[in-house]
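Session log. Operator J.P. requested a structure for one protein chain; no other inputs attached. Running the standard single-chain path with C-alpha cell output.
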Amino acid sequence: MSQTANKLTSQDQPRFAIIGAGAMGLSLAALLGRDAKVANVVRDPAKAKRIARDGVAVHGLMLATAHPAVVPSIPALAGVMPLTAIFVATKTTAIDAVARELGPVLDALPHDEHPFVISFQNGIEPGRDLMERLHEPRVLRMVLNYGATLTDDNAATVMLNGPPHFIGGPDATHRDFAAKLASLLTNCGLPTEPVDDIEPYAWTKGVLNAAMNPVAALTDSSVGEVLDSPARAIVSRLIDEGLRVAHAEGIDLGPDITGRMWATLDKARPHTPSMVGDIRGGRPSEVGQLNRQIIEHAHRNGVPVPSHEIVAALIDSFDWRIFHRPTMFDGVPS
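Structure written below.
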C-alpha cells in the first residue's frame, strides 16, 4: 500500500487541499474540516481574507463549519505538502488551467508521495481529462448528488441533497483508497459509496445535467419551473438522446433509468442549476463538458442528437457574445 493510502489509516490526521472556492468547494471545506486538516486555494484576496478570518460554512440541507488554511494559488500548495488528496472543485471549464499549475507541483514530489487527485466536478470526462493532462494515474472521480449556491464569500447553501454520492475510477485499481476516503467523507456528513467503475454513475448524472441545465439556463428557470413549463418536452428529448448515446457506448445504467431520472428531477424542483448563474453572470458555461461531450460520443457512434446540437449552439451563443464578439465600445476613443 502506498504512503498516500496509509495516511487515511494512520493515527495522523489526514490533510486535504481543495482547489476552488465556489459553492461546491466551500461546502466541501466546511464538511471535511470536521475531521481533517484542510487548505483551500482562494485566488481572490478579499475572499481569502474573509475565509481566513471567519472560516467557511454550509447551510440548508447540510450543516457544517470549519476554519481551513487559505492558500493563494495552486503552486503555493507545494508549501503545505504532504497531502492525502487534492480535490479539484472548480468548474470543468478550468481543468486545463488547473492541470497546468498543478502538474509541476506533483512532478516535484517523489512518486510515492503524490497525493490522490479527486475530481469534484460535473460532466462525463473530468476525471479522465485530469488523468491525461496531469499524466497522473492516481486520479479519482466523485459523482455528487447535491447542489449548492453561494450565500456569501465564505458560505454556501445546499438546496438539493440526494445521497449517496459515489467515488471511484475507471476500474478497481484504487478501490482501497476510494473505500477509505468514502468512509471519511461519510463520517463528515457526505454519505459516499466507493465503486469499482465510476462511468455508469458519471453518465447517469451527465445525461441528466445535459438535459436540464441548459434548458434552465435558456429559460432562466429553476428545475421546478422548467418541469412545469412547455420546456419539459425539450428535457424529455435530451434525456432520450443522451440515453441512446450511453447505450451505444455500452454503458449499463441499470433498470428503469428513464423513470429514475424523472424522479430525481422532481426531487430537485427547488434547485437552480449553476449554468443559470453562469449565463446571468456572463461566465463561461459548462455546455462543453455536458452537451458537447454527449455530441462527441454520439458522432463516434453514429447516434443522431439534434436536440443536444440545438441547445449547445444556443448556449454557445451566450459564451460567444461575452468572450469572442467585439463590443460596441471597441475602437471608440475614451
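Operator note: Residues 326-334 have pLDDT under 50 and may be disordered.
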